């Protein structure tokens, strides 16, 4: 905590009013008052951050890169920002997605408070998703694997920054609703009963409802639909074809591959090649062919082609 001298607040390097640590990012609240906040973002390589418009939001938002390189994904071509570069809007009217290319520090100033949203909602949702991942018996990193590979597929398919932002969180939080499933059902080693399947079928809607009430609400439809299938054989609403969001279909393919190549309570993992063959066999019935092909192309570019997902986001 900084030292106070009269009406001024003095902070040493590394001190802050409050610090929140998110996925690959630390947010340091340096000053706050009259609705204005000054926040230092310290980001690891590959960390993502977004600015997005919202109904009723009229804030002046501005940030200056202090050190490192930051990539700004724009529909008309990426922009690489460096020390001293500044981005400002009043208000933000377009979805803006950024990714740290190196260790990075930027100073963010907003005329309306946002820090509580980071500390109370996003962090809780992502921590809960990791808890569910462990409860479901997956190896560590399942949420990150789904997010990393989904983002790679989304970029390959040309999704704009705003939809990539929603995909980022929809993929990470896809199975959040499994928090409502009893352990003896979720980790049952044998066949499920009809009643137990009904519990399983509800989890996408439970997760969607949880996220709908937060600042991450744009990810809710992705979570709700990630178990739907092209031919209507999915759940919870048996949606067909284009009624299923592209982002949800991306998560469906990536999640299916990860499930097949992971040990589960009821079976051993399949080899990567066998999992890829199964995706191809279900292309056009369960999964969109363009999504399957884009996913296989991203796998081919990974170190160790088709092996467990890389340890960091693409």
**Shape field:** globular
Uncertain spans: 1-5, 306-314
**Count of individual helical segments:** 9
Query: Helices and strands: which structural class?
Result: alpha+beta
Oligomeric state of this protein = single chain
- How many strand segments? 12
Integer-rounded radius of gyration: 21 Å
Relative helix content = 25-40%
Largest sheet: 6 strands, antiparallel
The N- to C-terminal Cα distance equals 36 Å
Percent strand: 15-25%
Arrangement of strands in the largest sheet: 3-4-5-12-7-10
Element-level helix/strand string: EEEEEEEEEEEEHHHHHHHHH
The averaged pLDDT comes out at 88
Describe this entry's structure for a reader.
The chain is of the alpha+beta class and 314 residues long. It is 37% helix and 20% strand. It contains nine helices and twelve strands. The strands form three sheets. A six-stranded antiparallel sheet has the order 3-4-5-12-7-10, covered by helices on one side. A four-stranded antiparallel sheet has the order 6-11-8-9. Strands 1-2 form a two-stranded antiparallel sheet. Helix 2 runs antiparallel to helix 3 (161-172), helix 2 (142-156) packs across helix 7 (246-260) and helix 2 (142-156) crosses helix 9. It is globular. It starts with a strand and ends in a 13-residue tail after the last helix. The model is unreliable at 1-5 and 306-314 (pLDDT under 50).
